[in-house]
C-alpha cells in the first residue's frame, strides 16, 4: 500500500517512533488519541497551508489536477480578463488583476477578518450577478465583482477540503501524525483542561529534521481514499474542522456557529454537543451550556448508556454546570 511506503520513508527522518516516546505528549498511545478525538475529548488541528501542499501528492492524480486548477483559478480569471480587456478595449477589466490578488489573500483561513471577508464577498458576488443580468452597461463592473467573489470562495473551498482530508489522514497513521507533530503542522487541544500541545511546546523543533520530513511528507504519494470521501461527508468534516480551528484560535462565536451547522447537517455527531456545551460554559453562557447538557443526558438515559451519562455529569461538573 502507498501509505505503508510513505510510512517506511518517514521513519528514518522522525525522531520518535511512537507517540509514547514524545515528552509531554498528552496521550499514552495512538489509539487513545483516536478514541479521544472521536468522543470529543480532544480537538485535532492541522496546518491549512501544509494541507494544501500535501494534496498535490496525497489523494491521487485526479485531485492533484483539481487542486492545481482551484489554486490557479484566480490567475486563470486574471489572464482571461486581460485578453478580453485588450481585445474589447474595456481596460477597466484590468481591475480584475488586483481584485483577484486580494481575493486570493483574503481567502487564506488565517486571515483574522475572514468572517467579515466572507460576508462582503457574498454580497459583492450576488450584487454583481444581479447587475450583470439587469444592464449591459454594468457588465465590466459586474465581471470584476464576480471575479473577486469566485476567486475568494474557490480558495476557501480548497483550504477547507484539504484541511479535512489531512486531519483524517493523520488519524489513520501514527507515523504520519508524529511527522506532522514534529514539523509543527499538527496540534492537539485537550478540551477538559483547555491545554494545547504543539511540537514547539514539547521540544520537537529541529530545523534540519523538519525540512527533511516536510519534503518526505509533501512529495510522498498517499492514497487517502476511503469510506469518508462522499461529498456530503467531506463538506461536514470540513465544517467541523473549521470550527475546531476557530476554537483553537479563540474565535468562540464563529466556532459555535459552525458547530450548530454541523449538528443541523449531521445530528448523530454527539461529540459536537459536548463541544458546544464546553464552548458555552467557557464563554459564560451557562443557560445554553445547560441546554446542551440536558440534550445529551436525555439521550444517554433513553439509550441506557450509563457510563456515558456518568462521564457527562463529571464533565459538566468540571465546567460548573448541571442540576442543582
- Label the overall shape: globular
Number of helical segments with 4 or more residues: 15
Q: What is the count of β-strands?
A: 3
For the terminal residues, how far apart are their CA atoms?
55 Å
Radius of gyration over C-alpha positions, nearest whole angstrom: 22 Å
**Class of secondary structure makeup:** mainly alpha
Identify the strand order in the major beta sheet.
1-2-3
Q: In percent, how much strand structure appears in the residues?
A: under 5%
The low-confidence parts are 200-231
Let me know the largest β-sheet: 3 strands, antiparallel
Summed over residues and divided by their number, the pLDDT gives a mean of 77
Helix fraction, binned, reads 55-70%
Order of helices and strands: HHEHHHHHHEEHHHHHHH
Written account of the structure:
The protein is mainly α. 69% of the residues lie in helices and 4% in strands. It has helices at residues 2-10, 30-38, 48-58, 61-88, 96-106, 114-134, 139-170, 174-182, 199-202, 207-219, 231-249, 252-265, 270-282, 286-303, 306-319, and strands at 42-46, 186-190, 196-197. Strands 1-2-3 form a three-stranded antiparallel β-sheet. Helix 3 packs across helix 4 and helix 6 (114-134) packs antiparallel against helix 7.
Amino acid at each position: 500500500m502507498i501509505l505503508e511506503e510513505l510510512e517506511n520513508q518517514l521513519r528514518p527522518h522522525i525522531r520518535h517512533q511512537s507517540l509514547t516516546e514524545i515528552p509531554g505528549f498528552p496521550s499514552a498511545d495512538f489509539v487513545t488519541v483516536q478514541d479521544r478525538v472521536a468522543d470529543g475529548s480532544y480537538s485535532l488541528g492541522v496546518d491549512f497551508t501544509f494541507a494544501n501542499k500535501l494534496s498535490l501528492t496525497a489523494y491521487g492524480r485526479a485531485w492533484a489536477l483539481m487542486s492545481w486548477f482551484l489554486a490557479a483559478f484566480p490567475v486563470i480569471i486574471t489572464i482571461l480578463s486581460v485578453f478580453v480587456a485588450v481585445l474589447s478595449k474595456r481596460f477597466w477589466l484590468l481591475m480584475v488583476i488586483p481584485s483577484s490578488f486580494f481575493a486570493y489573500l483574503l481567502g487564506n483561513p488565517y486571515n483574522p477578518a475572514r468572517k467579515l471577508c466572507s460576508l462582503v464577498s457574498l454580497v459583492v458576488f450576488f450584487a454583481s450577478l444581479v447587475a450583470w443580468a439587469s444592464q449591459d452597461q454594468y457588465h465590466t463592473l459586474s465581471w470584476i465583482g464576480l471575479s473577486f467573489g469566485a476567486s475568494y470562495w474557490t480558495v476557501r473551498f480548497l483550504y477547507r477540503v484539504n484541511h479535512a482530508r489531512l486531519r483524517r489522514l493523520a488519524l489513520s497513521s501514527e507515523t504520519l501524525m508524529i511527522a506532522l507533530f514534529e514539523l509543527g503542522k499538527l496540534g492537539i487541544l485537550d478540551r477538559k483542561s483547555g491545554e494545547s500541545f504543539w511540537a514547539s511546546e514539547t521540544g520537537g523543533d529541529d530545523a534540519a529534521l523538519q525540512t527533511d520530513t516536510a519534503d518526505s511528507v509533501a512529495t510522498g504519494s498517499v492514497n487517502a481514499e476511503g469510506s469518508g470521501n462522499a461529498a456530503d461527508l467531506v463538506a461536514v468534516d470540513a465544517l467541523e474542522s473549521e470550527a475546531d480551528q476557530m476554537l483553537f484560535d479563540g474565535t468562540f462565536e464563529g466556532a459555535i456557529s459552525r458547530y450548530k451547522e454541523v449538528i443541523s447537517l449531521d445530528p448523530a455527531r454527539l461529540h459536537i454537543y459536548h463541544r458546544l456545551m464546553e464552548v458555552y460554559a467557557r464563554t459564560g453562557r451557562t443557560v445554553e451550556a445547560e441546554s446542551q447538557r440536558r440534550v445529551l443526558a436525555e439521550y444517554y438515559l433513553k439509550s441506557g448508556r450509563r457510563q456515558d451519562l456518568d462521564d457527562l455529569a463529571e464533565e459538566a461538573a468540571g465546567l460548573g454546570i448541571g442540576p442543582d
